[in-house]
């Protein structure tokens, strides 16, 4: 694309030659002719000046440091980078047309220009929205609904009665609508509780590879609009994740957790069941969240990595915390008594 066309598409102010042809996004240090990069941190202005990129995306304050290159000026260069990357994206389509080995039930309904890859299976009364792409080996269960323009990469499994909105993206290996972990114990014997709820996923949701989203036990598991979920996450039955929330990889939500809107969940965090998290809460990576959080803010837990020798010492001291607590209380009591005697 010509730089002027990119500027128009992303709403940037063009500084310099708009006829420059841009072929791809590149790192500021390694970019060369025909490539565009960006600067979001002023500490790297020297790298910006030395860069061989044909064009850069910068804030207005950084224009004196572009070194004569063409520039696109935006308040947030990182957002400009993301939009430009979308314009230049050359990721192959997931599927083109209906592959002859796809198995589509006669009672399924496919919208205009739906593509279905090799060996995919679409069950009875499933509905696939217009322009959706269903990758090779995907399985869409009975009565499932997939919104328009949604893309499922190969080997995604969508169980019965699952609803996925429009413009969603689901990476390979993800399972949506599997049974929640619901059992009763009768004298040592586990009795399975049928999971009769559904999964409802909004629009513009992205779900990483090998993530599992369980169906509700009675009510639905709900993922609202514009949520992004990383790889290898576990979302148990009846969980609700609010609009605009981001969940990093390896996170586990136990049953009936409610996550507010516009939260940021760090990777490998763990949430206890039946708790509620307020809107605009940030959870640091590797947190263990055992209680509800009712106020926005940043919350952290866990012990940073130490040498094994240091960790063993820390662990041994932790085991004696209760003993130390009682000793400190006793010392405080004695100190208060001595101070009382002095005053007397």
List keywords for this structure.
344 residues; alpha/beta; UDP N-Acetylglucosamine Acyltransferase, domain 1; 10-stranded parallel beta sheet; 36 strands; 17% helix; 26% strand
Provide the CATH superfamily of the largest domain.
Hexapeptide repeat proteins
Gyration radius, to the nearest Å?
27 Å
How would you sum up the global shape?
flat
Mean pLDDT: 97
Q: Which strand-content bin applies to the residues?
A: 25-35%
- Low-confidence stretches are none
Count helical runs.
Answer: 5
The first-level CATH class of the largest domain is given as Mainly Beta
Largest sheet: 10 strands, parallel
Strand arrangement, major sheet: 6-9-12-15-18-23-26-29-32-35
Number of domains as seen in the coordinates: 3
Secondary-structure arrangement, i.e. CATH architecture of the largest domain: 3 Solenoid
- Taking the alpha carbons of the first and last residues, their distance comes to 88 Å
The assigned structural class equals alpha/beta
CATH topology of the largest domain: UDP N-Acetylglucosamine Acyltransferase, domain 1
